[in-house]
Amino acid sequence: MKKIISILLSLLVCIHFAFAQPPSSSIKQWQDQKFSMFIHFGGIYSVLGGVWDGKPVTRGLSEQIQAHAGIYSDTYANLAKNFNPINWNADSIALLAKAAGMRSVVLTSKHHDGFCMFKTETTDFNVVDATPFNRDVVKEMSEACKRHGLRFGLYFSLIDWHYPQASPISSHNSDYITPEHHEYNKKQVTELLSNYGTISELWFDMGSQSPEQSKELYQFVHRLQPDCMVSSRLGNDQGDFAVMGDNQYPDYSIGVPWQSPASFFDETWGYRSWQKRGSKDEKYKEKLESLIRVISRGGNYLLNIGPKGDGSVVGFEKDVLLKIGAWLHKNAEAVYGTTADPFFTPFKWGNITAKPNKLYLFVTSVPADGLITLPGLEGRISNVSVLGEQQSLSFKQATDAAVITLPAGFDSEKQIKVIAVDVAEGYKVQPVHILSSSYDHIKLNEHNAYNYYSSSGIDYNSNYQSTVKQSWTIKPKHKGKYQPAIQYTDEEKGSIIDLNVNNVTTTLKLDSDRKMKYKPDTAKIKWGPLYITGPYSAGLGGLNGSADKIDISEPFTKDTDKSWRSVNEYKNGQLIDLPAGMDNAYYILQNINAGKDLIYAQVKVTSGDGIIVLLNGRQLLINNNPGKAASVSHVIGLDLMPGNNQLLIKVFNNFKKNIPFALTHSIPQNIYVKDLEPLTFEANELYPVSLKLHDPASPHQTLKLPNLEIWFAKK
């Protein structure tokens, strides 16, 4: 009997995890939206419109006016009695979104103030029970979207300033989610996913959950609605799509489904009555170009409106959206049903989307010579034309590029034009960066890889750009058998990776492999004194100053009060505690002299929450501490150049009152080699190589393989 129960439990676990991620068809349907409407509409902050006590509140975002104006909780709650949006019409909002070319709507069901825009049994602080309006806004918007063929998603704030058992209002919004608050959130999520039909995405925001809370809520959503896409702001690397920073438009390749949330004005998302709105034409061009940049990188663009307290849409925002919609109507072919730019280089003249037999060139800046060059394009071009116009454009093709000549008077300033390039039998794009060696030995590592990124982190403030995949293209100069091998260190030991060579994937565990005989000439390495500066207000990603050729006699930043100071008493490997608050960072610098030769050496770096390690300005490692362990150590390989080298380490804190730190250079210098099966390569042919983690805990999890190298040596 016990055995039968055990089998049943195992089956339940399998079923449980089978629903943990939406099916690929649902992911594709979400990605195909391209352009969506975000709506920040709240029963109190929309009425206030950024004004308190008759004065504009200029600090912070207007939807967070309760915190920024210091309004007492009971005073703020009583303002719900003033919410009666007589001009709210969900059908007109849905029709506006449709006219703007948007495919879905994401409405704020509850923002940080805790006021629910839906009928809930968890609190009477909601739009039905606490206001004279007495109507369920979420229900009306859901039904309107269904009537007009739009998908419907919901924003849900994980923090709640009205719930008594929640953490109090903070300055950073990464508030701890108490166990009681977590259960409260689950009850409200249950209502939202049970009472309002199909929800295309659940857009969680802010708060700092434990890994267990994030994972439980992620799986909880998919048990209720398996096709619902979850945003990565759920935290702890959970989520089906990565959310960029507010109004962030990345210029790099992203290896997961992603979205860029944007507001009309960086200063606010909720309605602000005194907002200076400027020129509609300039705002239209700004938002249209942002949309183009996002879709050309393969992402979705989520553009926000902030209705007034009476429920009406701001005329400025409506007019801009309708103008974008008119442009999209003309150029829809280049937006919907397309994939990301297939080229491996950015273009100053604009951006590209693609279909199997067609390329679409969005010309936002006309080149001075009137020529658009597409490098490495393989495939016969049959026609080049401007969408919506009858005129064909002249072009020339060579083996390594195609060149299109823009006609005289071609102007993208008043109206962005799209050039359609028909490639009759399909196309290929050669990578720009091809690796080869005249010595029949090719070495691949993270520094010569083409990287695909995501967004990783415990919460919003500890987010950083994670690397989820690395790829290379190799070009052997001679035909024959090549011996592939993977070199790694104790940092990578135990990792399981998927290595793809020429479209054949092999799963490999980096463990129990032969040790390389290596002993660095430590006598030729001189470790200089340690210098430190900080603390600085910071997130995990990025640096407060420049990492290039640091001068310790000058401050690291413009903050002249924080100079570099020598840690004279520091001993190799000594663990020290640096006092720090939330979102604080220190920088530690060590000059290393390697004499006259190139020397490889390994060091161990110990830190607390987050860390970035750079050598001579080049990043070697970025990582955080999702399990919130007391400290975490990393083994880092240093390719020391002859002469002086600068090792810069950023240590970051987001959950403790201090940052533990240690730097140790007297560690075992272990290097392991995994020999793989020989491969036969043809001379001067191109072979793709890629690397990613095998079955990672999350698609956003960073590789964390800083010392790994892949070799191809001719036998």
Automatic annotation (TrEMBL):
GO biological process: fucose metabolic process; glycoside catabolic process
UniProt keyword terms in alphabetical order: Glycosidase, Hydrolase, Signal
Family matches, as InterPro entries: FUC_metazoa-typ (IPR016286), GH (IPR017853), Glyco_hydro_29 (IPR000933), Glyco_hydro_29_N (IPR057739), Glyco_hydro_b (IPR013780)
Keyword Hydrolase found: yes
Positions of transmembrane segments: none
Domain (Glycoside hydrolase family 29 N-terminal) ranges: 26-333
Pfam families named among the record's database cross-references: Alpha_L_fucos
First-level EC class: hydrolase
E.C. numbers: 3.2.1.51
Signal peptide: 1-20
GO CC list: lysosome
Hydrolase as UniProt keyword: yes
GO MF: alpha-L-fucosidase activity
Family per record: Belongs to the glycosyl hydrolase 29 family.
Biological role: Alpha-L-fucosidase is responsible for hydrolyzing the alpha-1,6-linked fucose joined to the reducing-end N-acetylglucosamine of the carbohydrate moieties of glycoproteins.
Name of the molecule in the record: alpha-L-fucosidase
Record organism: Mucilaginibacter rubeus
